[in-house]
What does this fold into?
Amino acid sequence: MLLAVLFFNLEGNILVERFHGVPAEERLHWRTFLVKLGSDNLKGAKNEELFVASHKSVYIVYSVLGDVCIYVVGKDEYDELALAEVIFVITSCVKDVCGKPPTERLFLDKYGKICLCLDEIVWKGILENTDKDRIRRLIRLKPPADI
Amino acid sequence: MDSSGTTLMDLITADPSSVPSGTSGTSGPSANTSTTSSVAAPPSTLGKPAAQTDRKSKRSTLMQIHSETISVAKALNPVKTNIMPQKQKKKPVSYSQLARSIHELAAASDQKSSQKQLVHHVFPKLAVYNSVDPSLAPSLLMLNQQCEDRSVLRYVYYYLARILSDSGSQGLSPGGGIPTPNWDALADIDAIGGVTRADVVPRIINQLTKEASNADVEFHARRLAALKALTFAPSSNNEILAKLFEIVFGILDKVADTKQKRKKGMFGGKGGDKESIIRSNLQYAALSALRRLPLDPGNPAFLHRAVQGVSFSDSVAVRYSLEIISELATKDPYSVAMAIGKLLLPGGALQDVLHLHDVLARVALARLCHTISRARALDERPDIKAQFASVLYQLLLDPSERVCFEAILCVLGKFDNTERAEERAAGWYRLTREILKLPEAPSVSLKETSVESKDSLPPKPSKDKSQKSRRPQPLIKLVMRRLESSFRSFSRPVLHAAARVVQEMGKSRAAAFALGVDIDEGAHLSVYSEATDSLDTDLNETSSHSEASRKASSVSNGTTGKDTVASLLASLMEVVRTTVACECVYVRAMVIKALIWMQSPYESFEELESIIASELSDPAWPSTLLNDILLTLHARFKATPDMAVTLLEIARIFATKVPGKIDADVLQLLWKTCLVGAGPGGKHTALEAVTIVLDLPPPQPGSMSGLTSIDMVSASDPKSALALQRLVQAAVWFLGENANYAASEYAWESATPPGTALMMLDADKMVAAASSRNPTLAGALTRLQRCAFSGSWEVRIIAAQALTTMAIRSGEPFRLQIYEFLHALSLGGVQSQFSDMHLSNGEDQGASGTGLGSLISPMLKVLDEMYKAQDDLIKEIRNHDNAKKEWTDEELKKLYETHEKLLDQVSLFCYVPRAKYLPLGPISAKLIDIYRTRHNISASTGLNDPAVATGISDLVYESKRTPAEPDTLDDDLVNAWAANLGDDSLWSNNATAMNRVNEFLAGAGTDAPDVEEENITYRPSVGYDDMWAKTLLEASEPEEDDARSSGTSSPESTGSVETSISSHFGGMSYPSLFSSRPSGYGSSKTSERASAPGASRFSDPSVGSSASMFEGLGSPRYESFENPLAGHGAQSLESQDDEPSRSENRQFGKALYDFTAGGDDELNLTAGEELEIDYEVDGWFYVKKKRPGRDGKMAGLVPVLYVSQS
It folds into this structure.
């Protein structure tokens, strides 16, 4: 299960969050935990360099892209390597939508599209599409494979 | 201005030119005053509307908003919307403005400008909120029907899905964002025009169902989107589910039955004809939807369609189909195996999956193969099982680490979180024994029976080049090579995963050892050694396109000559150890866990010890990780009890290095488990390992020398010094509690009659006799005696208590020895003798020398009374013997009462088995037995048995003899109980630590992590305030808004009432969340601790009630150090009575007025409803209804004033 996808800016403000199967009262802990993780480790990190953490049987993979930090949390079949795949899809889509590693302004300008992309990538806690061309088609309501 | 004061909406709507990019704070001040003044309110993602006093004003506002929006929407003329002018004013767009815009623009959706505004301004901003108002649904549906623009439509599907998925409780919707109110509750308030989810959901479902069933070719992209949106409907609704199944199976009926082979290539469809592409798209959509629907095991149609999916051309569809099948296989392996058997044949679709681009599809294949190859149901079909096993082994060569590791874990028997030792042991056996035979290799296929079928098929395109030299390979070698190369990766996730795989390997290996599975790790794998060259080429070829680091795998080629499992393991562990140098602490933790698991009980653990010691010196380790490792030690011990001493040694490093970061309860539990598990021979050593903590020199502040020495205590800061102190207390307590168990010395089993001790009143002789008789106990005694003098005040108290425990439980001469020592201690007279040992900690020792006099005197009194009673008894016996007269019933009764009285007193200090313990000495056993038999007194309950106390037993049990309980008790068990070590109790006694251990062992636990620091660093860009204050109210009633926002700072304000309630009921307040956790953190834990020792120590310690006393086991830190005879009993009574009284005090009431829930935890009321009142909090009742209300809710909060109590 893909428990959560979160985007933070560099100051630790949440930009986007998508939880699945995380009780409401635990979300606060996750946010806090992830921000702390980022502030401890992400200083000076390269774009798209992958970081890993775990808590009990839950895995966290996170990365920084431009001015945006991306966190993916999963368990069971979504272990650290599967999450690395997920975060790869997400970063490539964000880059695709923004045209480059986004500044915070750019990210916010493309907010709607990024939400749609996420909707195509993660669907009810399960990874859906992984190909960015396909995702690009789907967010324009074109069929996944073009005729 | 602090950026936390800025909402995401502020950021998005802020004029880019006035805001430097990246700095989000500046747009805040430009907002109007009501916004800025209200942002200081505590974040509440629940988005709960304000408390009841605000209700009326809200209602009026809402009415206004609703009538506004509706009238505007009804106007239907193409209005110029006003969203842009607002942006120019640099004011954040409010939700109500967005909603109004949607209504207006929907009405004008045929115009290009409207569409543009929707796509570029309205819809993206709406995405910021975490739920969507159901009243938007009519406009969205209108757009859905009338608008042609694909981008608009995509958003429309997105929002329709969100309305469907919203369970009505905004806090639970999957999308985060600015919290929104409970729309349904709002609609209820507004009686006339309110739109609830219940109103719109059927309309949305109808519309989407229609679209999803539309077979028009031109429409099929929208059909896909509609189907996807439909799956967001809550799966609890059977009607919707039935519809979805109908649609999905309808689509599959049309498109699934295809004989076409999947085309190669990433997505299959490229260059295909239109019909097949559309079919493939529909297949994908149908299977995606099917994957989100609940499994239907036992339904042949369901299985049939899922199996067909394996042959689809869309890789995502194939992945889903495999995932569904592999889940079905865990429930019904036989039918699944029968259904997919054909696909597994060479050239079948399952073989194609091996080369499919989608990683998760291959992961699902590995799981499927594992499930079927291990299925009991298929025991009669070994051929099928072997086929699937062979595919699983082939996946070990997969270029993706994710797939390869999954295959390794499957081979190892690690499939899900259920740990079954037999399965794991079999896994290790498989890994070390099995051979990978690649079906393509001619040399192998000749041996197979189905030669023709294999040869007739063309080889797989991607494997052409390696075709020539495929030979059988031992799995272990493949796996080791692969892991070694993974450990050379630069990617942290890969390192973490590889270490995890090694850990699982260690678990399986430990299970194999524990179950005695015969694996000779020293045996050569030389049978296959000639194949190693080809193996290397294989590996290099299959993984050539993954990371460059893989090249390094050739390094290990030197070892291929004569490989044994042991040598392969050794070379792997060498690589694993070097990974400790990784800068990521989580990877290091996983590596250490792997090392702990791979540590064999027969090898030296010095290397592991020094690795851990040097790791622990790194301050970067978070305490959760350290505790995780401590729990790993636990798990390791459970797997291999032989390692008790080794593990204790390692645990000691934690105690000395990072006392402040580890959970002392968990450490204690580890001591205890190890002590029990060490067996008769190891008990002594185990106890020694624990007590080494006591021999440590006190921490020296500021000293940095010896950071890596494990014998140095590093507790330089006050917090860890305190923690170390508590740990020492725990160790002292542990020693007192368990020394008798470790030494197998019990008063009630003592062979030495009490009289003999009196012969040895000379102290020196006594000590000599004691240590020669039982060195373990004598050693523990010496340590405790030293602690009673030289520790800090708290340690001394516990040492004195521990000594008393030992005095009571031990036979002579130990009891007398302790008695003398305690006596001296209370006077302080002996201190001069020990002064050379005494390490001053700057404390005033008090006038009595030790300051322990008042504490010790009741203990001495009990011992005094015991000795006195023993003397009296001996005198009496002598009198009776001399006079040659029988004991009268009266005399026996007096004797028995003395016995009981002493038992009661003794039980106040420590647990003793009532049935066996003889405070009057062994000599009294016979007389007491006579009395008990005569009066049918059960030994375990004694006079406390009400039947005995009131004399009823004399009447009732006159003729029949009750079976004596002592006979039914196993001696060892009683002794273990005496030390609180009974096996059953072990796993139920220490609630908090136990929960953690059990949870860890079960591999469960996905609950949120704790962050140690008190200040929360994350700032939700949302939830700075309620929707109310922020947007809906700001325009119309600013003065009220001001009042509210200023009120939040005052304790009497409605705002604070609201927050206190929400925090009380799983709300968002930080500290209370900790206390609501089941494992018990923070405040609740401390209160438990405060009451537990009292309750446990002074509860009736009969065997029957042993459970209650075990609860206190993990609480050596007695919070209160007053005379234990004084206040504790009452306290324990109170704490025990607490629970029942709460449940008895149920109150009932009746609703006086209608009440509309304003939030998730509130409950709708209809006047006159009967209620059961659970409890009251801050002006609210938590009530339960007799039957569920209109909204289906049974229980929740209502204002006190709305209920009349009956």
Q: What stands out?
A: The helical segments of chain A are 24-41, 80-98, 104-109, 111-121, 132-138. Chain A is about 40% helix and 25% strand. The two ends of chain A are 33 Å apart (CA to CA).
